[in-house]
Amino acid sequence: xxxxxxxxxxxxxxxxxEAQKSEGRGAEAQETAADQPAVQRLTVHNRPAxxxxxxxxxxxLLASELKQLFRRRRTQAMLLALAAIPVVIAxxxxxxxxxxxxxxxxxxxxxxxxxxxxxxxxxxxSVPLFLPLTIGVVAGDTIAGEAGLGTLRYLLVAPAGRVRLxxxxxxGAAVFCxxxxxxxxxxxxxxxxxxxxxxxxxxLSGDLVEPDEALVRMxxxxxxxxxxxxxxxxIGLFLSTLTDVPVGAMAATIILSVVSQVLDQLPxxxxxxxxxxxxxxxxxxxxxxxxxxxDSFGDNALLQLGYIAAFGALAYGRFVSKDVLS
Length: 326
Fold this sequence. Notes:
Radius of gyration: 30 Å
Oligomer: single chain
Shape: globular
Strand content: under 5%
Structural class: mainly alpha
Helix content: 55-70%
Order of helices and strands: HHHHHHHHHEEHHH
């Protein structure tokens, strides 16, 4: 047989199975991509190329957090509720008979004589329950709320970074700590000025101050309360890192605030009182004296700073080592 008569042996092409496998893998990948949530596929497709990943600035992250926080109807409802407390007190005093001295909250019997006492009374009434309630809701929702909604993973992909995200969340809660007592103070001063006579205010030391100076002291009281709530907010942040259920973190934070106040009333635990985060909550009376006493303000700030450091460290240790699955 000549060389030209030889028929070449037809061997199966080695690349055909590989092509079929590649085609099968492509179809499988398409099916998997189709089964993925739209948000996740959008995140993957929009991910920047290696080396071009940019970190959002801390300022933009904080601005976004504050915008999201104060646009929530829940947050707006809580601020309106705090502002409604002095309005209710003022209306009740206005339509009722004279309040007997020594009955009800402090300064209640002075409201009809000077409307600026509405704000002081309302802030005093809000301290034990209403302010801790709102702070517990906001602080307990910081991390657990994102996990419960399934958005925590995407915040970390942004990329925000766990430490920066934790700091931004606490900063947002701290801004709410300022807004909450301020809402009550401004609403109280406004309604008191509108329906009661306003004049020089008698301080606890017996001195009289003009209304403008009295307003400054009310703002100082609001600042004192804001500082008082920073420790509770740090506790709520830590509890929020322990769970994906925000209601649990909120409830635990509020319960701890009640427990701390109860323990502060037990004389058997007098040695513990200076270490309780609620111990100085009512110490703003020194701001209503002439001259102003700053010792309580300083002791309160130092105590809250300790709670921020302790529970901030716990929140950091928990959050940076946490497996974020939602």
